[in-house]
Design brief:
The complex is a heterodimer. Chain A is of the alpha/beta class. Chain A has one domain: Rossmann fold, CATH 3.40.50. Chain A contains seven helices and five strands. The radius of gyration of chain A is 20 Å and the shape is globular. Chain B has one domain. The longest helix of chain B has 15 residues. The radius of gyration of chain B is 19 Å and the shape is extended. The two termini of chain B are about 35 Å apart. The chains are: A alpha/beta, B alpha+beta. Strand 1 of chain A pairs antiparallel with strand 2 of chain B.
Chain lengths: ~240, ~80
Amino acid sequence: MKNIYRDFAVYYSKKSMGGDVLTIDYRVAPEHPYPAALLDAVTAYQWLLEERQYAPENIVVAGDSAGGGLALALAMYLRDHRIPMPAGLVLMSPWTDLTCSGESHETNFHRDPQFGGTTENLLHNSVYIGDADPTEPYLSPMFGRFEKMPPVLMQVGSEEVLLSDTLVVADKIRAVKGKLRVSVYDGMFHEFQMALRLIPESREAWEEIGTFLEIIYGIRRKPEGKVVKMVKSGRRQQAEDT
Amino acid sequence: MRTDKVSLRGKLMGDMMRNMMDSAMGRRIQTGELRKNPVEPAWVCPADYEYEIVEMEHFPMEYLQPAKVSTGRVILQLHGGG
């Protein structure tokens, strides 16, 4: 697992005002095709519920790219198996359609700096499918049902070949009147949130995640009132003097 | 219309990425070859956090907790495949 996910974990903890973060290094293809990753995600979710006794309303599932698709698949699996649902989902540039049928695969073919210009990439040659049908909802959640899903935040870049993966899912969630916020970041590329504080768009995206988490967890911050009188602490006074 | 809303830094980063994909390394990134065994310096856990590795039967999990608070909130993070 890459260090960026450890950095993400720190961001998630800060954005959730001191929440814990469990990042799982689930089994990946080609050694472990579907459904290994999904089963590992379910195992980790149940570990949180049973071993660590987190209340489901205090659990948010977050994922980027393939992990975003996996987060949706996990939520569908939990719903179908009557396991208590998490409070929300945070999806960054989720890959929800392993058949790559979305129209953005064509319209953004020459725009996407990472996956554009070629079909010889990991999107088109997914070994995770194995012997399964790629339109199976646990593999490609875009083809699934979206009833009774928790509130979802989706972020995606406008230049991505995976743009449709977000927009089509968003339409389906809206169709069943699910709670949803979808943000398309202009001119952005796949997983631009990995730039952390380096570019303004990524900072804005993380701010948005923070706001979403505050709402989902029901975190109440002190209302920002009018400053009546500024009291300077000794320490601040000292810092200003030096 | 699109580029107007993009920050200069954001645009620069996209352009750099495009250039990198045109290089010999691009193919290895696009096919996922590079992400299989990432070679990176060891990650340093920031102060005020506790970092624990939990071994499950089939996979490891990394559990990050702020050292001095317990909020009862948790985020389950699923990475993008490597």
